[in-house]
Amino acid sequence: MVASADRTRDTRTDPRQSRMYLSNLPSASRFRVFLLICVTALAGCASQPARDLVSRTIAEVPASKIAGKHEIFVATTREPAREPRAVFGGRRSAELSYARVDISVPAIHKPAEIERPINPDVGDPARYFTALRVEGYGGDEAFLAALRDNVASHDGRALVFIHGYNTSFDNAVYRMTQIVHDAGYGGTPILFSWASAGRTLDYVYDSNSASAARDALEKTLLLVSRSGAKRIDVVAHSMGNWVTMEALRQLAITGHRDLNGKLGDVVLASPDIDVDVFKSQMRRYGKPEKPFFVMTSANDRALNVSGFIAGNRPRVGDYADAQDLARYGVTVVDLTAMSAGDRLNHTKFADNPVLVRLLGEHLSTPDDLNETESEITNRIGSLAQGLGQTLTSAAEIIITTPLEVINIAVGGGQASR
Questions:
Q1: How many CB atoms lie within 10 A of CB 202?
Q2: Do both 124 and 204 map to the same domain?
């Protein structure tokens, strides 16, 4: 019994090690263990349980208790929630809805963390992320007008973030706020929130919701391009990468491949996409003229399980052959050696303080959209080494471009080619 329990724990830790063990079990037992592995590992994609975003009352606090306030624009394929304070729920809508959430970050905030409200009835801006105001927009033109004003006041820069699997609306807003705040991003933040159910067991529902949102994301990106934005950066996480790649593929087919020259960086963090599917998407999109960064991690256990469910096929986010991906014109950033804030290493891009600062430095630098791959890599290397001085131990970021492989040591090390 002890040996059997130990083996079960091993399969939870590394799904790829479970295959031989499962093959030796009777079919009924194999299915039960398989479900245990999947539920345990995919729970790592989960953020906190969904709560109401808007509190009944908000405590008055002095300005010194608030680190910052952010206006998060929202385009979503979610239906309005039955409880108005939740704003949007997990059910799909055939139409896009638009909103803006004004949200504050407490002065006690620690980089790469999200201080979520414990009691949704009373908002406390001194202790938690707090939604101060939610405004809806009645259609495309009203949303576009509001975007125009905001983009004009932020130097023409816009950032579109697409969240991943198992993400409720409130958690999507909190994550976008954390990224924007910790990264020090100075442009207009736009959250594209597709209809994730926000529950661990709804992986298939979420996958279908992501597919159903492709046209809506394409439309959203085109709206942002009409807002007066001079540069539009895109950051996607996990299953959100599927929506993103499909929307970009569709834009290429319809002649808007680079959003009329406004598309900036595309950052694909922990992509939950089959490698062969991604290659076909890239073949249709074509080699990017602007930077495509694919953030991978071989120890991303959530993606290990996703690949296991999909017939032992690797996902892009845990794919070991970076040079194979780089042939399609993308720059692969291997984060395997970096630490994460979640136990399954699935949200490193936002949960590691060094990485989120690195992301922010890159997105906020007034660079040239025609910057070469070599110039981009050199700048990332300089940023990584500078930020790495705050680390107590060394780790490596391995960058593979279509031209070369570069190891960048953060925490006192040096870059090597």
A1: 17
A2: yes
**Cα distances (angstroms) measured from residue 84 to each of 74, 237, 360:** 16, 27, 33
pLDDT tens for each residue of 30-71: 444 444 444 444 444 445 677 899 999 999 999 999 999 999
Q: Is the dihedral of CA 264, 183, 200, 48 positive or negative?
A: negative
Same domain, 132 and 6: no
Burial 33-62 (b: 16+ CB within 10 A, else e): bbeebbebbbebbbbeebbbbbbeebeebe
pLDDT, tens digit, 9 for 90 and up, residues 273-290: 999 999 999 999 999 988
And the tokens for 274? Answer: 């089959």
In sequence order, the 6+-apart residues with CB closer than 8 A to the CB of 121 are 55, 56, 57
Q: Are residues 13 and 112 in the same domain?
A: no
20 with 124, same domain? no
Residue 377 and residue 320 share a domain: yes
Whether residue 132 contacts residue 187, with contact meaning beta carbons closer than 8 Å, is answered with no
Q: Are residues 247 and 355 in the same domain?
A: yes
Q: How far is CA 127 from CA 58, 59, 61, 119, in A?
A: 12, 10, 10, 11
Domain that holds residue 26: 2-45
Query: CA-CA distance, 13 to 9, in Å (whole number)?
Result: 6
Contact status, residue 377 vs residue 385, Cβ threshold 8 Å: no
Place of tokens 């245990």: 36
